[in-house]
Amino acid sequence: MVAAAVFAYFLIVVFGVLLVVFPGCRERVAAALSGAFTTGVLPLLRIGVRVSSGFHLFIRSIKQSLEGGGRFLSANPLLAGGALLLVVAPTLIALSIHTPAIFDFSNDTRLVDRQISVLLDGEQLIPPPPLPPEVFTTSEVEQVRPDVVHASRNWSFLDQDFKQRLLVVFKLMNERHGYDMVLIEGYRSPERQARLYEQGSHVTQAGANMSYHQYGLAADSAFFRDGKLVISERDPWAMRGYQLYGEIAQQVGLTWGGGWKMQDYGHVELRRAGVLGRAAAQ
């Protein structure tokens, strides 16, 4: 699409140069256009004839101009070469510069964040220190995430690539928005997944080996404020945090559960083809 637009622009510029450099061509084009569009009070049939005649005159004038231009180019090669260079140079320079496009019409409309790229390609971030177990045993936490006290929060069980992306999200949530993030569950065994599945679809819709948790490619997170774990989206502050969390997570290539039909605001995962169900098939 861009190449076609550049080529069309080149043709327009060349035609404009012909009109400016060759007065005869300019006069013929003007006469042809005048003959084609001057209708007055003539009947519609005569208008059609005149337009057709004007079009043929226009084509003939272009042909004559090109022939004259060819003779001019043969007689003045240096001058013609310089003029051609002036015409095509801007286009060639624009095509040779490999910078990100100002407008991106691809299917992926996410903005490229330079800070995120640097963090992902830089040194490996270190997981935050673990919180005391009692943080995960409050009535609020138990109501929203039952049995979460027995969940794994061991960062070493997570896929290395996924872990780095999640740590970048945690870092940016703190630096940009002032939210301290907490991992409440990372790796989940197939047995634990099966137990949660048995509790009903309001807990999870994925059976054993059908969740990215089993492969260290998913995590559930919440917020830490004033010494307490804030997990419920009913808290406006937490809901705003989940929205920001989802935006940053998607920028680093993760899938956010807040966009699902069964919304899971604290959940993110790194999807890979052929992973789900792999252990069960072995």
Q: What does this entry look like structurally?
A:
The structure is a single chain. By secondary structure, the chain is α+β, with helices and mostly antiparallel strands. It has two domains: 2-96, no CATH class; 114-281, Muramoyl-pentapeptide Carboxypeptidase, domain 2 (2-Layer Sandwich). It has ten helices and five strands, in the order H-H-H-H-H-H-H-E-H-E-E-H-E-E-H. It has helices at residues 2-21, 23-37, 44-75, 77-96, 114-121, 139-144, 160-177, 190-198, 236-251, 278-281, and strands spanning 181-185, 218-225, 228-230, 255-256, 267-269. Strands 1, 2, 3, 4 and 5 form a five-stranded antiparallel sheet that branches. A hairpin with a 2-residue loop joins strand 2 and strand 3 (228-230). The longest helix has 32 residues, at 44-75. Residues 207-270 form the Peptidase M15C domain. This is M15 family metallopeptidase. Keywords: Membrane, Transmembrane, Transmembrane helix. The chain crosses the membrane at residues 6-22, 29-49, 78-97.
Largest sheet report? 5 strands, antiparallel
Spatial separation of the terminal alpha carbons = 47 Å
Give me the Rg, rounded.
33 Å
What is the CATH topology descriptor of the largest domain? Muramoyl-pentapeptide Carboxypeptidase, domain 2
- Structural class computed from helices and strand pairing: alpha+beta
Percent of residues in beta strands? 5-15%
Provide the succession of SSEs: HHHHHHHEHEEHEEH
Task: Please estimate the helix content.
Answer: 40-55%
Number of helices: 10
- For the record, the count of structural domains works out to 2
